[in-house]
Structure formats: C-alpha cells, structure tokens
Amino acid sequence: MRKTNPTSLLKQSSAAGMLLILSACGGGSAGDEVANDISTGLLCGLFNCKDSADLALQDISTRFVVTQSNGVVQISGRLGQSANIVTVVRTSGNDQLSASANGQTVPLSAADELRSRYSAQIPDASVQPVVTVNFIRGGTAYPNMVTLPAVFSIVNPAGPVTLARSAGKLRVQFSRNMQGNTSVRVAMKCTRYDGSSFNEQSDLSFKLEPDAYRIDTLDLDRVLNARSVAANNNNANTALVSSCDLELIWSNYTTGTTHPSLNKYSTISGERSASHQVFYDARL
Known about the structure:
Blueprint: H1 6-24, H2 29-47, E1 50-51, E2 60-69, E3 72-81, E4 84-90, E5 96-101, E6 104-107, E7 109-110, E8 118-123, E9 130-137, E10 140-147, E11 154-156, E12 161-164, E13 169-174, E14 181-192, E15 197-204, E16 207-209, E17 212-216, H3 217-231, E18 241-255, E19 267-281
Parallel strand pairs: 1-4, 2-19, 12-19
Antiparallel strand pairs: 2-3, 3-4, 3-8, 5-6, 5-9, 7-8, 9-10, 11-13, 13-17, 14-15, 14-18, 16-17, 18-19
Helix pairs in contact: 1-2
C-alpha cells in the first residue's frame, strides 16, 4: 500500500480550508480573486498544468472539435502534451490559438479559469464549412483543418417511440448515408423497480443492417443497469431498471488533417448530431 505524506495532506487541507473561507466571504473582489487563484493552483497541481512555451513544438498536441448550429461554427478543444490525456497545456509566451472559417479569423479564448479549454465562434451558414485551427508560435501558424460533414436527420423512427425490452431491437434510419464515423450516446432518466431513480449518460453500441442502424434491447438493458449500479455507489444489490426516458444522440464526424510539426497525437474533427426520444419499458 502506498504511504501518504502527512505534510502533503496538511498543505492540501490548509489550501482547501482557505479556499472555503475565502469563498464564504462576501466582502469584496479581493477575496474572490485569491480564492480563484488557490482553486486554480490546486486544479493545476491535479492536472499537471504546463506552459506551452516550455514545450517543444513536436510535444504539443492540439485536440479540437468543430460543430455548427444555427448558422454559427463553434470550435472547442484543448492543448495536450503528446498522448497524455491528463496534462493541461496552456498557451504562454508568444504562443497563440486562432480559428478561421468563411474568410474570417478569430482568436480562441480560454473557456474556463484553468485555461484547460479554448473556444471560438464564427458566423458561417454554409452547408459544409471548412474550418482551420491554428497553433501560432513566433508568428508562424501551424494549421489543422477539417470539413464538417453534411447535416442529417433521423427519418425512422419519425417521432418519440416506446420500446419494450421484449421488442428485441430498435432500427434507426437517417436522411443520408452516414459516411465517416458514427457513434451514439444515451442520456437516461430512469426509474428502478424499488421506485428510486437516477440520471446518467453512456455510450451505446449498435449493429449495422443493410438499410439501418440497430440497437439491441438486451445490450441497451445491460448499459442502463450498469449505469444504475454505478450511480448507486456500485452497490451490487441495486434494484433493476424498470423504465427510462431516453434521449439517443447520434453523431457523425469526420477527421481532419493536423500539421506534421505538431505532435502526432494531435486531432481535429468535424461533428454533426441528431437526437430522438425513446421511452424504454423493461417490464414488457
């Protein structure tokens, strides 16, 4: 068993205690700023924050997702160190991030106090926007580019559907051929047989038929009950799920190109989504 350093625990407890005291004070902005600084410092210790200027270009990985909604392109993502998915890399020195689409270029701004994520929006109502995210160092841009997939909709089932466990499967058809990669997530609001309830999310698996995507109800039932147990502190005696209001969120995404000077684990993708409602009844 790994031993815990008492001094380290004391420091963390003291910092956390100071954060709570400062957060509780309503006397002015100075206390809020100090509390935010302590909070950010603790989080940076947890996520091993690094300044981009301290890293070689080939060690910086860009990880961005591009979507479009109501005529606006939305860019969101982060910087990392190589394949490390935990380390937070923050722009520093002369390093910058920008995004371009529809003849416009805008800076990417930090989306949180930790500066762990960056985002931007660009008006663009074109059918399939072409978007570039630039990592800029010393005035030189290292572009990462992606073309968004076309918009799609769910044509079958046409509206909310009731799905019994005994039905065996749910077939889903889309308005176009889903070229590229397709995935589905489920947002669940479920009730158990004992009357208790929970809200969770999870990825789902599906199977391909010649003319449809298929979700087997037994696979769905296993996922719902697994998330139910996890939501109940992994209690093995958790009652089974009896019914759920589900939102199935289907995503179709394409992978773009990243600059070869950046780390090989850099990614940029363009994503479209469509969702539909399912009432699942495990009692039938």
